[in-house]
Amino acid sequence: MRRLIISICFLLSTITAVCAADFQPGNPRTMKFPELNFQIPKAERIVLECGMPVYLLRDTELPIIGVTAMVRAGSVYEPAAKSGLAGMAGSVMRSGGAGGMAPEAMDDELEFMASAVESGIGSDMGTVSLTSLKKNFSRTLQIFRQVLLHPDFSEKRVEIARRQAIEGLRRQNDDPKDIAGREIHRAIYAGHPLGTVPTFESVSAVTRQDMIDYHRSFYRLDRMILAVSGDFDRSELLKELNAVFGAVKNSGAPDLPNIAQPKQQFQGEVLYGKKDVNQTVIRMGHLGLTKDSPDIYAVRLLDYILGGSFTSRLTMEVRTNQGLAYSVGSHFDIGRRFTGSFIAETETKAESTAKAISLMKGIITDLTKEPVSDAELSAAREYMINSFMFGFTSPASIVTQRARLEYFGYPEGYLEQYRENIAKVTKADILNAARKYLHPDAFKLVVIGNGAKFDQPLSMFGTVRELDLKTTVPK
User: Are residues 200 and 298 in the same domain?
Assistant: First the structure.
């Protein structure tokens, strides 16, 4: 028995040694994998009897149904003298009761059913959404319809919304990052509705009747798209939607107000906000491009290489090599209806403010001089193509994305051709895009911090205009 045990141990040790000799640890940089084959999920598009497009995607994993209505509205259409109207109206549509149902009664019933109905208005889209258990969907849909089409705008809730907006304005200069974000946006879109921000005067001027008139002007069935996902029976759902929204199309709807594109004026500006803090907040940028530009795919890759990843040029140099900041990056916000923006940002200690600004501008300038490397292009391309699937993580995200593409007028086949178009981008395309859409000498530069501690005066970057950050609340 002893000899048998020794023989077995010897055999096992021999096998282990041979396997160890044959085993070579894999290098993740050289490992090969089968080509990723990802098919884009489909959503069915139908048109209700009232003419409203609806995107449907059934999912029976949970007994839940979600609906989102996208409405052609937005803060760009509000009068400058009443800036804040759209945002307040979007909030009070839900909070102020609807269809003769008191706000408190609506809150209680939705809570009892474990349902949710939410509303809001952004710069270029209004939304109303619902989430409901399947068994409570019919009743929740009725409330959803009232909020969408017949909000009551309770005077009491209007006043609450006004006070909340005023309180937000009182605190708008508390956070240096909030200040910088607001001011870079105002500078880039100066003279355009996108650059208008609410004030105490404009918010105080908003009345309940303004909200009613705004809603009446924009919330029409022929300006809406629905996205529906969840555990529904298709035929029953369509029957219910047609019953809820009716069979008569709106007629004679006035066109949306004509809002011009922002003017492409590339002129540098330095804005300084004095804030007694140890860390300086830096934002720099200018206008970018729209979704209709043929350069959007090159810009997507440019975005990743410059400041859109943890291995981007800005991160590697400003953070890793120079140690000037913990967070640094840049981003092209490609405009869907109006021209978007390019913004680079970071926060650094006051004593390295000018150094960080100069370094960032230098890195951005370098991209306009020489092509990116093969390694940078390959890494960016692989990331963009392989991460594409994460935009389809749930039925709700899939159906909503399809509806958004139609809402903003994306071309047919945009999603299906996206990866192919990314794969076609060359180094020359990225260089051309950098030269066309990056103008460091024309940056709007916003700096929030304690100028007395800066390593160099901001005047080295141009004439400085100091921001008035004093908050005076009207009585």
Answer: no
